[in-house]
Amino acid sequence: MPRILGVDIPNNKQTVISLQYIYGIGPAIAKQVCEKANIDPRLKASELTEANIGAILNILQEQYMVEGDLRRQIANNIRRLIAIGSYRGTRHRKNLPVHGQRTRTNARTRKGSKKTVGAIRDRTERKTAASAAAAKLEGKPAAGKK
Q1: Is there a contact between 43 and 16 (Cβ–Cβ < 8 Å)?
Q2: SS3 track for 13-26
Q3: What are the angstrom distances between the C-alpha of 19 and each of 32, 37, 53, 70, 135?
Q4: Structural fold of domain 71-111
Q5: CATH topology for 3-67?
Q6: Other C-beta atoms within 10 Å of 111: how many?
Q7: In this predicted model, what pLDDT tens digit does every residue of 6-56 receive, in sequence order?
Q8: Beta-carbon neighbour count of residue 64 at 10 Å?
């Protein structure tokens, strides 16, 4: 497996696809890198020579911000938004969607799993919840739990 910028790229895939395993490189940039390094994009990553890997590495370091530097820049941008108290910063701080999506329904990726709030409708669940609450007040384990 060739290692570029600390990332092992897969052997059995084409170079243009393998380069996309590096954070910050998508299809268009992978194609540009292959053209600048004079490498056939359809060439398998396992067939790359040391010279080819060196050329790719040189191009990525000089012309593109990828991996750690890109992650650091994005984290700093988010920290700056939070520090200045912008709307986007407050959305980041509260772990809510930042780009104007609705939150009444959906947004489960940012908000996490549902937390049901309100009355318990089922009688048996209500009784177990009440006994658990009473036991919590007394400091004893609940009747239904062990």
Answers
A1: no
A2: CEHHHHHHHCCCCC
A3: 11, 13, 11, 16, 58
A4: 30s ribosomal protein s13; domain 2 (4.10.910)
A5: Helicase, Ruva Protein; domain 3 (1.10.8)
A6: 14
A7: 889 898 999 999 999 999 999 999 999 999 999 999 999 889 899 999 999
A8: 17
